[in-house]
Amino acid sequence: MKTARSLIGILLLVVTAGAVPVELPVKHVLTLNATKKIAAAAEAEAAKRGATVVIAIVDDGGHLVLLERLDDTQVASVDVGIGKARTAAIFRRPSKFFEDQIREGRVAALALPGATPLQGGIPIVVDGKVLGAIGVSGNSPQEDEEIAKAGAAVTATAIR
């Protein structure tokens, strides 16, 4: 028994002696507090415009973190706003990219799993990495995107 323990101890020393320590990458994530600040900036922009919209913020996997449906916003905009945000997060580009592709004749973009090819989803980027996205729905496509951009624009200060 003592010999077996000694062999195991020696084996562990040999295996770990040549091992190179693995450095894990550091990943920034959106906190609830940061998403509230991003949503507040988008809501302020919507109020300035008199817009009734849904504001959805998702993490980098497209999972909902925060949802606001402003007063008198159509119910259908809830799922659309989440879809726009999810699209921007998981594909790491504005959802308008896919709307433009379809408009230009690439209808195959309609088959992309999880894509909502409608303008109004904007990635939330920090140091070149997508941490999530904001999607806005309820008004014109252009106005939805401008409201989403107003929210995403405060990311740097929101994460401090």
Question: What quaternary form is this?
Answer: single chain
Taking Cα atoms only, what radius of gyration do you get, to the nearest Å? 22 Å
Number of helices: 6
Structural class: alpha+beta
Proportion in β-strands: 15-25%
The count of β-strands is: 4
- Residue stretches low in confidence (pLDDT < 50, at least 5 long) are none
Main β-sheet, in a few words?
4 strands, antiparallel
What share of residues is helical?
40-55%
Q: What's the arrangement of strands in the largest beta sheet?
A: 2-1-4-3
Termini separation comes to 57 Å
Order of helices and strands: HHEEHHEEHH
Q: What is the arithmetic mean of pLDDT?
A: 91
The coarse silhouette is: elongated
Note down, in words, how this protein is organized.
It contains six helices and four strands; from the N terminus they run ααββααββαα. It has 160 residues and is of the alpha+beta class.
Keywords:
4 strands, about 160 residues, alpha+beta, about 45% helix, single chain, 6 helices
Write a concise synopsis of the structure shown.
The chain has 6 helices and 4 strands. It has 160 residues and is of the alpha+beta class.
Topology diagram in text:
Blueprint: H1 2-17, H2 32-49, E1 54-59, E2 64-69, H3 77-90, H4 96-103, E3 121-126, E4 129-137, H5 141-152, H6 155-158
Antiparallel strand pairs: 1-2, 1-4, 3-4
